[in-house]
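P.,

For your records, the input lines for the assembly:
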Amino acid sequence: MWLHASAHLEFQIPVPTPLLLMLRPRSGGQQWIAREAYVLSPSVPAIEFTDWFGNLCQRLVAPAGYFSIHTSVDVETAEACDAAPGAPFIEVQQLPDETLPYLYPSRYCESDRFSEMAASITAGSLCGYDQCSAIVDYIRNTVQYTPGMGQQIISATEVNQAGHGVCRDMAHLGIACCRALSIPARFVVGYLEGLQPMDLHAWFEAYISNRWYTFDATQSNLQGGRIAIAFGRDAADVAIYTQFGDPIDLLSMDIRVGRMTGPAN
Amino acid sequence: MWLHASAHLEFQIPVPTPLLLMLRPRSGGQQWIAREAYVLSPSVPAIEFTDWFGNLCQRLVAPAGYFSIHTSVDVETAEACDAAPGAPFIEVQQLPDETLPYLYPSRYCESDRFSEMAASITAGSLCGYDQCSAIVDYIRNTVQYTPGMGQQIISATEVNQAGHGVCRDMAHLGIACCRALSIPARFVVGYLEGLQPMDLHAWFEAYISNRWYTFDATQSNLQGGRIAIAFGRDAADVAIYTQFGDPIDLLSMDIRVGRMTGPAN
Amino acid sequence: MWLHASAHLEFQIPVPTPLLLMLRPRSGGQQWIAREAYVLSPSVPAIEFTDWFGNLCQRLVAPAGYFSIHTSVDVETAEACDAAPGAPFIEVQQLPDETLPYLYPSRYCESDRFSEMAASITAGSLCGYDQCSAIVDYIRNTVQYTPGMGQQIISATEVNQAGHGVCRDMAHLGIACCRALSIPARFVVGYLEGLQPMDLHAWFEAYISNRWYTFDATQSNLQGGRIAIAFGRDAADVAIYTQFGDPIDLLSMDIRVGRMTGPAN
Amino acid sequence: MWLHASAHLEFQIPVPTPLLLMLRPRSGGQQWIAREAYVLSPSVPAIEFTDWFGNLCQRLVAPAGYFSIHTSVDVETAEACDAAPGAPFIEVQQLPDETLPYLYPSRYCESDRFSEMAASITAGSLCGYDQCSAIVDYIRNTVQYTPGMGQQIISATEVNQAGHGVCRDMAHLGIACCRALSIPARFVVGYLEGLQPMDLHAWFEAYISNRWYTFDATQSNLQGGRIAIAFGRDAADVAIYTQFGDPIDLLSMDIRVGRMTGPAN
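Structure tokens returned:
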């Protein structure tokens, strides 16, 4: 299916401020970017680099005053996410090197504290995909989903105690449990078609059998229509924008996702 | 200055054929991509990866029949290329690690055979930028520039013997001479505004003082308005498309570059 | 100065267990490895890879029963660590790309919670090296140093509350404060000559001016004689060994560091 | 099997000279380095980095006068190289990204000129391993092997015309033919137990089925006892030492390889 998605951010900036942006989805196995716009107003010099996770990041200094960032993409992505009930766990010694960093605890996923809980949740599940399904079910049943993205970020431990959270929090808890079982898990920020209310979304992927699979604890039926914008160990690695120095004002953030028949030629 | 550039390639393909493409300019210190399109007709799955040189490469299997690739970019790039007469040579022990591969001989730049010639051409020049300028002057004076890109690729040694060549050949000769003097030099394929007749262009960059500088032996006055598409050690690393298996027919390749006032918001 | 250092680890292993090791110091700007041993008993196949941080990591499956790892190095390292009072802070937009990951919060360094504390500690200090010095002084004065490495790892927030900690904990707190000031800071595990009692040691480095500088909150006078074994964002990235699956018994860990006149020829 | 191998190089150096060294074998799937020495006399600062091919490279400035480099390793390596007659060719679209650079022509392997010859040599062979075997047989039957490594490097085209060559030349010819068939092939420099006369050796690897296999056109029966020191596209990427500036005198190079029962504990 073809989607058109856009993010429009407007800022009021008191003093020139370094920004680091992750707003450029990449073409990968799951999605193909046919058209893309990335417009800065006013136009300022920006430099792009690739981070450890493979994200294309942009660095710039936002000038004082009104500043806006407009990005949009035409993307072909899957109508439905692959699922693989029964897909087997990979022994750590067989995992590709590049998946290993996703086994360790990280800022918001204190997997070192979830061994018992993860074992308990997945008792009786086949090792691998079914463990992840059990984790997602558990989260959906015990953590109340409260849509939105803008709040202070809390960690898996804190989400578990709070009993409610946004998509990001539920992803953190899922990741922490997977890693506690030696299943590599990573955090994804992206667009999701049909999200209500429309906003950026977060979910996670787990490495099972021989590839990454999508999991989303905010949904009882895993929906397709996803566009991954950036990957990381958790939200500490993946902010669509990071600012340094004195605070800046985000006046508005407008996210849109719609179906299209295909890219214009 | 803002440029709109596009490449439109049309193929007739006898049997499904793996293609490797380098047609996606990246935002870097010298250019900022504000809009981009990359449309495959018919639409087929494609995967993108980053090669050793930092190029974004796309892999796909082109289906049998008519197949077209249309890419376009809106880019902000410099009106004039930086020049730095007198900029000093960097001792090899001071060069950044990542420039070292550009010191070695490569397929079409047999720098191991150009030590004497390079020393002779640059006799009396200050080490560094002025050596590169002397090399470019020498090439422009001894190799007749014959526009076009489609011919069989020949090496620096062969260009030097032939006494004429396309932009790519002149770049190879320049690179071979620079490397023979321990100056890192790399090959660039890109767009050049105002090129007559319009086509893709090739030039080279040399690492002097603490950055890469642009050199172009096809011009007496170095022009700006460049959009780098891909970098490599020579043309063996940088083909806008590489096909594997039985030959395919390139029906047409249409390259356009024009000025624009700025990206639409 | 030349040092001979060794780590000897003995395990009792109930079932074959995947291990990931970081026990191989690399030759870098600060140290040169002239001799090295890395002996596994019994000898088992091992594979080496380089992680994101540049560490050489070894993967193997330890067999059931008694298993030992013996590593040793002859290293030339600096008698004294470089200090640079007054060295200036680098604006974020000037930082090299590869230092940026060391600005973000991580598992044990919740820098997002230390902005006020770091600002308060460094009030009146010149931005840059002197801020780091003030942070180290603060930690040494408020956190009681309790040698040892084996305990449960606690985070910077927890160290700050506890008021005492091991070298690793003090490094985590220092890193969290530096990052809160937009100074990249990374965690180092290594050998330190003369440490009492002898053990592995941990400290941190901060990126100031145009390089990494060493800081160690366990010492009033920064001592040289250091051999870095591995780098990371915090202890979650850098464990000299990580085991997966059922617990294994570390029977003994013997660390030795001594001066030598130079490597045998 | 366990081998002890050493390389001892002695130089007379007129003026301080930058050197780039590749003399440090790495632990990988095929070999495990248990002990290693790397001694410079006189001792000078050296910095190590990892190149595109994964080789650990050392940079230093050799001082004027007598200068020696002594490296040695205790290595566990395979008694016999794996062979896989019948192992299938991998379609280009299935090849891992990191093997693609080994498909292109390079300085000494002008694979773009070997399509017809490679097709002719391998006519009737199963695609994949058997094609490589046919290439190796052809080379052994048509190119006379003349041991030694010190001569001027010639390219695959030149080797093919000359009809005789050293191990390096035969590897270049093999690589050129493999790449002409879209089989990734890379150049290896290393130690070989039992080589007569003892010297460094060169061979090549081809990517077939799902891994790299060893080929050596200097031997009718592929022998084990190999220690890979460095990998590259051809000899232009892999010199055990590269010097920049005025020539230096290599007074002697002493290579030794012997069996041992195992590493001392």
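Two observations worth noting. Chain C is about 15% helix and 40% strand. Residues 129-142 of chain C form the longest helix (14 residues).

Regards
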